[in-house]
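tool_call: predict_structure(chain=1)
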Amino acid sequence: MAELTLWRPFQELRREMDRLFQEFFGTKSLFPERWESIEWVPAVDVSETDKEVIVKADLPGVKPEDIEINIVDNVLTIKGEKKREAEEKKENYYRVERYYGSFMRAIQLPSEVDVEKVKATYKDGVLKVVLPKKEEAQKKVIKVEIEK
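tool_result:
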């Protein structure tokens, strides 16, 4: 006589997903070494007023002289390098999780800007770039007149 087996598709799917995750991430560590080569990308806020676009980028530990800002084809590019200050010879490191190295962030600007009037300031690890809009890109309010 044939035996009936209860088929549970979601349990099968879960087992397969567990197997794939285990194979991909490994079982030794929750954060395997293969993820340590991922580059650091600074977080940015982009806001817009009627007259300018403002970009703020979090760059903690980066010196202003190590930051390069370019605008080409209405794309703002922020490049730089976060340098390791000094290596301590007395300490034995088992793991270093603070990022050191170069970074780049490219941001498509929402409107045309006047590159000659761009200003960049740096304070407390935050880079602020103020990009004045070109006159033709600024919002123009047209008053509707009543015809007589």
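agent: The helical segments are 9-25. Proceeding to next step.
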